[in-house]
Amino acid sequence: MTTSCFAYRCIGEERAERLAYRPASYFRLVTIRPKWVRIEEEDRLSLAGLDEQVIPPVLIGELPESIWPFFMGDPSVIAHVAVSKYGDLLPLNRQQTISARQGFPLSKSTMCNWLGKGYDALYRIVDAMHREALRFAFCIATDATGAPVKAPGGTQSWHVFTLIADRDHILFRPSATHDGEAVKKLLAGFEGYLLADASSVYDALYGPTAMTEVGCWSHARRYFWKAKETDRRAYEPLALISQLFAIERDLADVSADERLAGRRERAGPVLQALDQWIGRHDGNVDTLLQSAITYYKNQRGALRQFLQDGRLVIHNNASESALRNLVLGRNNWQYFANDKGLRWYCVYRSLIASCALHDLNPQTYLEEVLRLAPHWPITRMLALSPKHWARTRESLDARHRAIIAPPWTLPSHPQLPTLDRDVADAAQ
Q1: What burial letters (b/e) apply to 209-230, b meaning 16+ CB within 10 Å?
Q2: For the chain, is the Cβ count within 10 Å smaller at the N or the C terminus?
Q3: CA atoms within 13 A on the CB side of 261
Q4: Considering its fold, how many domains does the chain have in total?
Q5: What is the pTM of this model?
Q6: Is the pLDDT reported for residue 128 higher than 80?
Q7: Same domain, 231 and 311
Q8: Helix/strand/coil for 278
């Protein structure tokens, strides 16, 4: 038998990638701080020239500023519970089951306490976002949905309004009522364009010196869509409205000025054809189609506002999409335990939704802001909002950078607390 021997040289490598899963889990964050006892030597004190009463008998290392004192939950776990509940729609009872499966059984009451503590640190940020939106937004898109709150004998009908302020903020605000007074209070001071449906609750907002109404073509289309089941003539206005949406898709990536010019050139003839169709059929159709025509006639001016400024959009779909989280959430938790829980939802949801608007990871954002907020001036809370967070984070000084860093990433320095440098030096 003949054996051959060959030499080889490497010409590359074969790489195969597979998707695997390693379960994420809770873990115990242990903070060990050295404790120092005073050495009773009178000559050491006399040499330092200090009164004995200046130095306490026992000193303990300082707690890192990134850790909340006297609180079991680290901001990282509060952020996780918040995103799971208000982003992924996992009620606390399901999170309780999941945490037990991971070996860290957490009760609903414990997690509820954490969310309340987080709310106390975050609500001023959302309030500041709301103030900036009212003062500077070009257009605010709004809509509302029901938010049942538990009450004796059943539930009380609260509502949640969403406010989408340009590409800056997505806000959720609770209201015990859904009427003109509620929206006047919610939008007090705003003087820009308001994109909303034709609900009468918004009528008190419009006027020559107040907000300018912008109509929603999706709502107008919805009326004609319902009418097609009983009157096939509704297909013609539906086709014309579809052309408007097609034009918007074609103009999506151009400047506002180019979009406005394109709209006037291409959408103008479509709107003229729609007006002609309305003129021919108004009063000569069945009830459903007549309702669609009446809606269009009442909203005609508002529906044409998009021809005045290229920055305006022709529909309010973004507001409805923003509220879908709450609608789906109601299927999981049915109602809010109280109005406080509803306010928690609105604050957390405002920040999570705004994170998506600015391409931020909500888990990372909430964890860092929860660590920093207690050390931040309350007069500058807007700087902690998702819109401004990237710039704020970049400008943080060394102390604040250490605060937002997870404690387990920081170096360990078992040294005396720096309450008073002279005292510390004297005790060594």
Answers
A1: eebbbbbbbbbbbebbbebbee
A2: N
A3: 4
A4: 2
A5: 0.87
A6: yes
A7: yes
A8: helix
Residues 306 and 349 placed together within one structural domain of the fold: no
> Which whole number is the average pLDDT over 386-390?
98
Any idea what DSSP says for residue 146?
E
Average model confidence (pLDDT) across the chain? 89
Instruction: Indicate if 375 and 309 belong to the same structural domain.
Output: no
Domain range for 104 is 38-128+337-409
pLDDT band at 9 (very low <50, low <70, confident <90, very high): confident
310 and 240 co-located in one domain: yes
| Shared-domain flag, residues 360 and 310 | no
Lowest-pLDDT choice from 27-36, 115-124, 186-195, 219-228: 27-36
CA-to-CA dists, residue 329 to 89, 91, 162, 332, 363, angstroms: 6, 8, 15, 5, 19
CA-CA distance, 180 to 201, in Å (whole number)?
4
Closest to 274 (Cα-Cα) out of 196, 213, 221: 221
In a domain, 354, yes or no: yes
Judge whether 179 lies within some domain. no
Residue 234 sits in the same domain as residue 305: yes
Torsion of CA 407, 408, 414, 418, to 10 degrees: -10
- Quick check: is 416 in a domain? no
**pLDDT above 50: residue 190:** yes
